[in-house]
Specification:
InterPro entries: Acyl_CoA_acyltransferase, GNAT_dom, NAA80. This is GNAT family N-acetyltransferase. It comes from Neobacillus notoginsengisoli. One of its GO terms (molecular function) is acetyl-CoA binding. This protein is of the alpha+beta class and 154 residues long. The chain has a single domain, classed as 3-Layer(aba) Sandwich (Aminopeptidase). It is 28% helix and 31% strand. The chain is built from 4 helices and 7 strands; from the N terminus they run βααβββαβαββ. The protein has helices spanning 13-26, 34-42, 96-110, 124-128; strands at residues 2-5, 51-57, 60-68, 81-87, 115-120, 133-139, 145-152. It is globular.
């Protein structure tokens, strides 16, 4: 399995956009259109935010993760953020997510950051068991409870 920048794999932009649209846009009721998601992923970089990584094996995209400067407006003091971690269901349990997270931490460290943050509504146990430190629970503009975590980039 290889982890690469989506910006190096432009042929995967539509596939990544589809995964994220189905998992994070439709399910959350966001009004964002699919075309907007494609446009976003068409503009990701490898050395400044937003950054998107993809897990690849034999040309197949197994999953993705992004790095945003901020992923929670009410906590703009925290930077940067791991966002939109997604592994296709048929590849779950194979360490794809862990490899994407490890590469994300490496990228953030190379960019000069000592910490990485994330928000989750329903995967707190996943991150706790992988060494992330719980910081707080907040409510967003939709009044959803969001757990905020951080990890040291060492």
């Amino acid at each position: 399995m290889n982890i690469d920048f989506l910006s190096n794999q432009p042929e995967k932009i539509n596939e990544v956009s589809e995964m994220i649209f189905k998992e994070f846009i439709i399910k959350t009721g966001s009004g964002m259109k699919f075309e907007d998601v494609v446009k976003h992923f068409s503009n990701t970089k490898d050395n400044r935010f937003p950054i998107t990584l993809v897990a690849l094996e034999n040309g197949e995209c197994l999953g993705t993760v992004s790095i945003f400067e901020n992923d929670l407006k009410i906590r703009d003091m925290y930077k940067p953020w791991l966002a939109s971690l997604y592994t296709k269901p048929e590849y779950r349990g194979r360490g794809v997510g862990e490899k994407l997270i490890a590469k994300t931490i490496d990228v953030v460290k190379e960019l000069g950051f000592n910490e990485l943050y994330l928000r989750t509504e329903d995967a707190s146990d996943y991150y706790r068991t992988r060494g992330w430190t719980y910081l707080e629970t907040v409510s967003d503009e939709k009044h959803e409870k969001i757990d905020v975590f951080k990890v040291k980039c060492i």
